[in-house]
Specification:
binds iron/sulfur cluster; 10 helices
C-alpha cells in the first residue's frame, strides 16, 4: 500500500513510536511541515557551532563564536525556515538575541580550544540486518586516551528525571551507529543542553546497544507492517498540541486521505 522505507534515523524511530500516523505524513508521504521558532533557532545555533569548529582549535575564541553566529544569521535570513516564520522587527530582534544567548551558553560548558574533534555534522550510515541506519552526529571527539565521544547539542530544555530515559533512546542509536562505522564503541555520549548549560553523559554498554538494536528492528518491522496494511494508527499525546497535521487527524475529526492534496508543497 505504501513503499517501505529502506533506512531509519533516530528521529524517524522516535517519530514512529510517538505517533505512527504523524510518521506516515512526514516520513512516508513526505508532507512538508512549517518551520517553528524553536526548530529554526535550534538549526541556526547548530550551524554557528559547526562554523566555530571550522577554525583551528586555537582560534575557537568567544569573538569567533560571535562571528559564527553572525554568519549563521546571515545564511538563515534568506532561508525558508526563517522567512516563513513571518517575523516583525521586534520578533526578529528577539530571535537574534536568543540565538546569541544560547550560543554563549555553550562556552560555559567547555573550552572549544581544548577539543580534538574527529568531525562535525558527521553523516554516518551502517547496515543493521539489511536495514540502513542513518544519522548525523553533531560532533565526534577523540579524548586524550584515544576514546571516541559523541557530542549532541540540545537547544530545548533538559528532560526531567521522569522523561530522561525516554529522551536518551536516540543517544544509544548514535552510539550503535558509531560503533558500526568506526569499529569502536564510544566511551560516552554527551548531551549538551545549551539553554541551562547542563550536560548529561551516557555510557553505552553491550546491553544498551543490544537493546537499541532490538528496539530499532522491532520499530522497522512495525513500519513494514503499517506500510503493507496501510494502518498507521494515530496516537494521542501531549505532542498533538504542536502537530502540524492535526487538521487531517481522525482523532481531531480530520481525514488523513486529504492531507496530501491540501498541504502545499
Ligand atoms: S494530532 Fe496527535 S494523534 Fe494526530 S497525527 Fe498528530 S500527533 Fe498523531
Amino acid at each position: 500500500m505504501y513503499e517501505v522505507p529502506t533506512s531509519l534515523s533516530p528521529s524517524r524511530v522516535e517519530s514512529f513510536i510517538n505517533c505512527p500516523l504523524a510518521f506516515r505524513f512526514s516520513s512516508i508521504e513526505k508532507l512538508p511541515e512549517p518551520p517553528t521558532v524553536p526548530t529554526t533557532r535550534g538549526s541556526l545555533v547548530h550551524r554557528a557551532l559547526e562554523l566555530l569548529f571550522h577554525h583551528p582549535a586555537s582560534e575557537r575564541t568567544p569573538d569567533n563564536l560571535e562571528l559564527a553566529v553572525d554568519a549563521a544569521l546571515t545564511e538563515y535570513r534568506v532561508h525558508p525556515d526563517y522567512t516563513q516564520l513571518g517575523f516583525n522587527e521586534a520578533d526578529a530582534a528577539q530571535f537574534d538575541v536568543d540565538c546569541r544567548e544560547l550560543s554563549r551558553r555553550y562556552l560555559e560548558m567547555e573550552d572549544p580550544a581544548a577539543v580534538t574533534e574527529v568531525g562535525v555534522e558527521l553523516w554516518l550510515e551502517a547496515d543493521l540486518n539489511g536495514l540502513q541506519l542513518r544519522g548525523i552526529i553533531d560532533r565526534l571527539d577523540r579524548d586524550e586516551s584515544g576514546d571516541l565521544i559523541v557530542v549532541d547539542y540540545k537547544t530545548g530544555r533538559a528532560p526531567g528525571p521522569k522523561y530522561e530515559t525516554k529522551s536518551l533512546q536516540g543517544v544509544h542509536f548514535y552510539a550503535l551507529l558509531c560503533e558500526k562505522v568506526y569499529g569502536q564503541r564510544p566511551k560516552e555520549v554527551r548531551l549538551m543542553y545549551l539553554k541551562s548549560a547542563q550536560q548529561i553523559a551516557v555510557t553505552p554498554t553491550t546491553q544498551s546497544l543490544q537493546h537499541t538494536t532490538r528496539r530499532t528492528l522491532a520499530v522497522f518491522e512495525a513500519v513494514e507492517r503499517a506500510c503493507t496494511t496501510g494502518n498507521f494508527a494515530p496516537k494521542q499525546s501531549a505532542l498533538c498540541r504542536s502537530c502540524s497535521f492535526q487538521r487531517w487527524c481522525p482523532e481531531f475529526g480530520g481525514d488523513p486521505a486529504r492531507a496530501a492534496d491540501e498541504i502545499p508543497r
